[in-house]
Amino acid sequence: MTAARSTGGLLVALVLVAGCANVAEVTGTASQQDVEMLRADVIAMQTAVRQLKSQLDGLAPQVEGRVRERTGETERQAGLAQRIEGLSTTVTSLSRRVDDLGAKLDAIGRQARPPASPGPTPTAPSPGATASPRLAPRATSPAPIPGRAAPTPGARSSTGALQPQDVYQAAYIDFSKGGYALAISGFHEFLRRYPDHELSANAQYWIGEAHLAMARGHIDAGKSEEATKELQQSVQAFRQVLANYSRSDKAPAALYKEALALIELKQPAAAQARLQYLVENFPQAEETPLARERLAGLKER
Length: 301
Description:
- The chain is mainly α and 301 residues long.
- Helix content is 72%, strand content 0%.
- The chain has helices at 2-27, 32-112, 164-176, 180-193, 200-220, 224-244, 251-264, 268-281, 288-300.
- Helix 5 runs parallel beside helix 7.
- The longest helix has 81 residues, at 32-112.
- The radius of gyration is 39 Å and the shape is elongated.
């Protein structure tokens, strides 16, 4: 603003000087005094021009700097748009993968179903029907803390069709082998198909465990940003256990693991609140003594 005002003042001076010359031309007379005045005006005009040029030269870097700032901002906006587009593509790809998984599970179920026969329904699958090793029925996954009894899944249908336990076990096998991303996808598919199944609370709990395991892997690799994201997702997954399956035997374990994730996220007050809730509402749970120890440690800080 100061440079603009100075430039404006110089321009006004130039106009006034030019005005003096025009007066001499109109009157047609020019005394020695007029000549001296005109000469002084010319010198003033030259000085003003030099000052104007100097100020313009000083303004040039500022203009160039602002142009570069605008260009940088445009490039940043373009980069952000590309990143958003990339994230959108990733979400679309993941959605397709989930759909493909559902289609494959349906196909496996149809292939495993033997042809109908006029006689009584056999109690065992036909010799020709073979189940996928990955989907072979197994006992329900163990509890996160040793000593807890695991629920027994229902028996496989006599027709050999794909059962909810098979979908659950496929996801748990991925988890046990360290395929946490696949396990999360499989457990989400199980919950989408069977939201009210007796194993639904377990599936929701193992989603939280998978995110927690991935977070620990990122921590070991020094990837703090990725670890934070996985910890936040584990907190959300464990909270869903209590929100949707508050009477499940997984509820105390989910509360305890959520508190551990909150401690990793540097949120001790929130972790203390969840541990206190666990102690007050599940006094007989196996996680309660561990929760008391954690509470004591947090209160000493």
